[in-house]
Hints:
This protein is an alpha/beta fold. It folds into three domains: 4-158, 3-Layer(aba) Sandwich (Rossmann fold); 162-317, no CATH class; 344-428, Type Iii Antifreeze Protein Isoform Hplc 12, CATH 3.90.1210.10. The protein has helices at 4-13, 27-37, 52-61, 75-83, 93-98, 112-124, 134-151, 162-175, 197-207, 211-218, 221-234, 253-256, 291-299, 321-331, 375-381, 417-428; strands at residues 18-23, 42-48, 69-71, 87-90, 104-107, 128-131, 155-157, 179-187, 237-238, 246-247, 271-276, 282-287, 307-312, 344-350, 368-374, 393-395, 410-412. Strand 5 (104-107), helix 6 (112-124) and strand 6 (128-131) form a beta-alpha-beta unit. Helix 6 (112-124) runs parallel beside helix 7 and helix 8 (162-175) runs parallel beside helix 11. The longest helix is centred in the N-terminal third of the chain and has 18 residues, at 134-151. The two termini are 37 Å apart. InterPro entries: Asp/hSer_DH_NAD-bd, DRL_cat, NAD(P)-bd_dom_sf.
Amino acid sequence: MLNLNRKLEKLQNEGSYIKVGLVGAGQMGRGMISQIEGMKGMRVVITSDLAVENVTNAYKHAGIDAASIQETNDKEAASKAVQEDKVVATKDMKLVTSLPEVDVVVDATGIPNVGAEIAWDSILNNKHIIMLNVEADVTVGPLLKKMADSAGVVYTGSAGDEPGAIMELYDFADAMGFEIVALGKGKNNPLNLEANPTTAEAEAKEKGSSPKMLASFQDGTKTMVEMNAVANATGFSPDKPGMHGFEASVQELPKVFLEKDKGGEVNGKRIVEFINGIAPGVFAIIASDKEEVNAEMQYLKMGDGPNYVLYRPYHLTSLETPLSIAKAYIDHEATIAPYYGLQAETVTVAKKDLKEGEHLDYIGGYTVYGHILKAEEAKEQKALPLGLVDRNVVSKKDIKKGEIITYDAVEQTEESTIWKLRSIQDREF
């Protein structure tokens, strides 16, 4: 079977290419546009952003001539531009999801409710959808996948995101028949549950990133969400609420993931975890009960067993997203999707004391952070999924810092798409 690069080259040689629609021209979106512009058989033909100048600048930085960039919110004009091999800049995300010329839509917004809307609209318009929005995926991904399957399109997370990179290791090991003991990622900054856009501002400015995005990494929310996505895709679960967050080197990982009665540090197998000290890598801990396999693994200097580590020391974020686009369009396959439904839940925890009537804000904000539980634990506690949090959610009572926020402790001032989809998902599953 041809590899994706040769399949894309074949498309281009036939005078065709995959027409990509992108929502969100922030850091992730800009990088993806430039990466795709240097590839064969693919192009980002339309991009939406509330600040349309972000789109035009992204296209220009990708080397596209200003005369080939059409700024419009009109469907007919956008279609005509794409047919003339121009690219479209728009403020209207629904133009991206509905434009007939678009084959695959990519959500690079990072906002759960917006991501849910984009995925919903894309599937209704019979387009493959790539989610660079793990927060939306862990909240309503099982429903969206079921919808996509029914519509005959692909719903998938992205290569380059840590869950996608972990899934590649999982698929590799699983295909070869190894027992997979644990899956995980490195965390590249100390856990600070009180991190917020103000405390992260200086570092974010230095790195050229969003303060709230950086705060969501620092307070652990992003790690919880990413490993939640892996759990939903593989049937694995956290070994304890919030995971352990061990400190270890790559070489130490096989021993760490032995069970406690065997000299290790975990309670069981088939777990998701994060490790301080190995970022930006991802890993799979594998084992075999076959004597000859163990002998060969030791000969190959993979360690003494019984556990071995597969480690990938990088993930290229949105620069790898084109591989998921091609895989969805050409092979009709997902990079990562919630095949097992809700195995885990990232629940909402108060980052500070909240007063009755106080509005929650957003992921990486001042009011809440995420904490991973097994799905049944979250259900028993009636815990509010983190992806449902936005400024329309108000506390109905005083909530203490560090408490898990429950459904009955909040109300909505305006119902959002993601709440509606989650309600359907809870009934369906």
